[in-house]
Amino acid sequence: MLIEHLKKTDDRALTKWEHYFQVYERELGRFRKKPISFLEIGVFKGGSIPMWKDHFAEGSTLTFIDIDPACKEFEIEGTNVRIGNQADPDFLAALIEEFGSFDVILDDGSHICAHQITSFQNLWPHLRNLGLYMVEDCHTSYWPGYGGGFRNEASFIEFSKRLVDRMHSWYTDQDALFSFDEIAKEMNSVRFYDSIVAIEKLQQKEPPVSLYSENGRTEASRNSLKIRGRTSIFTGKDGA
Ligand SMILES: C[S@@+](CC[C@H](N)C(=O)[O-])C[C@H]1O[C@@H](n2cnc3c(N)ncnc32)[C@H](O)[C@@H]1O
């Protein structure tokens, strides 16, 4: 259990909300079986570096970035710490150039909404298929001082809600208002936890298919994606 790691910390302090550990178990367990490439944004006092090193399989590439040059000293064997701004596309491009794509990206950096969005936009294309992009401390989306505020369109939570729409754009029935978005071809889940958004990549060459099975015979169809002006076949069944 990752939370056990708290007993093993030294003067390299670690800072995480308690309930995040449950989310880590649920979301990151499947990435432990074989070596992966992991990126964490935000080093602070370096406490998460040994935790992630313990957690992931030996041979994993573990990369950490922070804007504070002092964080370089927290680099330990088998890990890479790079100094730069998570909101700087050139720095992120250099990171990709050096380390290639990632299986898991965890944004625990500035928690400023505009930074979270810029990092996502620049790094999501470099997340591997079946990979996971997690953003922590999204409660800052409710804090004006971080570029958030209730239903502020510029917040990361509102951006993530729009990802939910974009993921469903296969099914658009209002083309002018809501057109198809290419991101639907590679996003299969946007999971909201208290203060964490976890976005999963699944590259799909073909649109989703609906299966109809009767007497052991199964037919696949995408007709529902083509029909416009749909109405529910269940209309009126509730007596209304
Ligand atoms: C919450 S702390 C990271 C905690 C660490 N992940 C842990 O688990 O202990 C946030 C870190 O983000 C860094 N940071 C702030 N703004 C940043 C930016 N624009 N780019 C990269 N890192 C930034 C800070 O220097 C700080 O070390």
What would you say about this model in short?
Helices cover 23% and strands 22% of the residues. It is α/β, with parallel strands linked by helices. It has a single domain (2-208), classed as Rossmann fold (3-Layer(aba) Sandwich), CATH 3.40.50.
Describe this structure in words.
- The protein is α/β, with parallel strands linked by helices.
- The protein has helices spanning 20-28, 48-55, 89-99, 113-123, 156-167, 223-226, and strands spanning 37-41, 61-66, 79-83, 102-107, 127-135, 187-193, 196-201, 210-214, 217-221.
- The protein has one domain (2-208): Vaccinia Virus protein VP39 (Rossmann fold, 3-Layer(aba) Sandwich).
- Helices cover 23% and strands 22% of the residues.
- The strands form two sheets. A seven-stranded mixed beta sheet has the order 3-2-1-4-5-7-6, sandwiched between helices.
- The longest helix has 12 residues, at 156-167.
- The N and C termini lie far apart (52 Å).
- The site of S-adenosylmethionine (SAM) has 21 residues, from strand 1 and strand 2.
